[in-house]
Amino acid sequence: MNWMKRYQSNDRVGKTGSQGGEDGVIAIILQALGITGGWCVEIGAWDGEFLSNTISLVRKGFYCLMVEGDEGRSKALFRNAAKAEYGGRITPVNAMVGPGNVGELMKMVDGYMAVISIDIDGGEEDILAALPVKFAVVVMEWNDKGNKHHWSVLEAADRCGYIPVHATNSNVIFVLAGFYPTFCEGMAKIEESLG
User: Fold this and answer.
1) Number of domains making up the chain
2) At what angle are helices 22-33 and 180-194 packed, to 10 degrees?
3) What is the pLDDT of residues 117-162, one digit of tens each?
């Protein structure tokens, strides 16, 4: 998984804004998969911009459902979502997310399910297991404030049909198992083009 590290932040993907360069890695994974549009979801979105794993996708034309449970952060999320530069492509929601309501939230997503980022400071694996839909790429926090829950995140993703392709100190990125051969072929072409 470490060979993806070069894509965390470099000239090829541009300046990244996420915590550990995850948005740069996501961009390369989507390129390898041939995915150029659709929906992304960010659960635990803060203000929609700060350390976001998905805002760079919105800037590239993706639509995004951004969910934040904290009321103060949600107010900033709603303000930022209304910015003209995002062209109305962000659907902001103030809600605490858990296995019992994630299905209802997913009904707000109308289109191809490209990426979901789940960062709720514990319980990410429960939300993934409760999702009624599959995403091509999943980003899940696995190290919250030093409280590591690596194995539970990896096991949940495996049970849900995802394969890990990259990890940072805070997050692990997965690809849907059915897309893994396409991902490998696409990455080989990208690597070959770099020389």
Assistant:
1) 1
2) 100
3) 999 988 899 999 999 999 999 999 987 655 656 788 999 999 999 9
Strand locations in 98-177, DSSP E?
113-118, 137-141, 143-144, 147-148, 162-167, 171-176
- pLDDT, one tens digit per residue, over 38-79 is 999 999 999 999 999 999 999 999 999 999 999 999 999 999
User: What does the block give as tokens for 46?
Assistant: 């803060």
> In whole angstroms, what separates CA 165 from the centre of its chain?
13
Contact 139, 164 (CB under 8 A): no
Contact 41, 53 (CB under 8 A): no
Q: Residue 147 belongs to a domain with what CATH number?
A: 3.40.50.150
Sign of CA dihedral 54, 107, 97, 122: negative
Range of the domain at 136: 2-194
The rounded distance, in Å, linking the Cα atoms of 5 and 93 is 32
Whether this model's pTM surpasses 0.90: yes
- Alpha carbons 170 and 143: distance in angstroms, whole number: 5
Q: How far apart are CA 91 and CA 137, in angstroms?
A: 19
